[in-house]
Amino acid sequence: STWNAAGTTWESRDCTKFAREVLKQVFSSKACSVTTGGMEESRESLTAAASKDNDMESMLGNLVTMLSKVDMCVVDVEDIDGSATRVQKSSGIAHIFEWNFKVNWKATINPIGDIDGGSSSSGLVSATGWLKVKECSDHSPDFETSWGYSNKSKPSEDLQARAIQGAIQKL
């Protein structure tokens, strides 16, 4: 502020309202989407899996999961709770925040990945769900997450559900 032009006095400003809007914008942007699986990604994973001592059934299950291409994106963010503060002190400016929020996601699974060059849309499976984030803060990179499916949209096949779980971890 004008009375603290030298920045030598502790001064804080509540930025919660602004930060909530930024969170909404970030989670609704293209940056909050992920594509996993498919042929290209599976080549690397298959080479790594083959070098480990796995039984054949486990390796085949992993291969099917890796080949399943998942396109996932955040649809919206809700239940935003927390605060954000901008602090000016003698050592400079710091941003202090702590958030809890929930994002809703949608996913499309192509069980055969892009083996057919992506030309087929038959067999596509859709799913929707949520991801809750608790205690996301400026002072710790560790925060608690939980996730689930909405409206009974969990894929009926376990391998497809595993592919979704892999995409959630990257989201």
| Large-scale geometry | elongated
- The residue-averaged pLDDT reads 75
Query: What is the CA-based Rg, rounded?
Result: 21 Å
Number of strands: 6
What fraction, in percent, of the residue positions are helical?
A: 25-40%
Share of β-strand residues: 35-45%
* Cα distance spanning the termini: 39 Å
- What class, by secondary structure content? alpha+beta
Q: Helical segment tally?
A: 4
Order of helices and strands: EHEHHEEEEH
Main beta sheet strand tally, sense and closure: 6 strands, antiparallel
Query: Low-confidence spans: pLDDT under 50, at least 5 residues?
Result: 39-43, 114-120
What does this structure look like?
- The protein has 171 residues and is of the alpha+beta class.
- It contains four helices and six strands; from the N terminus they run βαβααββββα.
- Strands 1, 2, 3, 4, 5 and 6 form a six-stranded antiparallel sheet that branches.
- Strand 3 (69-89) and strand 4 (92-110) form a beta hairpin.
- The longest helix is centred in the N-terminal third of the chain and has 13 residues, at 38-50.
- It is elongated and about 65 Å long.
- Residues 39-43 and 114-120 have low confidence and may be disordered.
Describe the structure concisely.
By secondary structure, the chain is α+β, with helices and mostly antiparallel strands. 29% of the residues lie in helices and 39% in strands.
List the keywords.
171 residues; 29% helix; alpha+beta; 39% strand
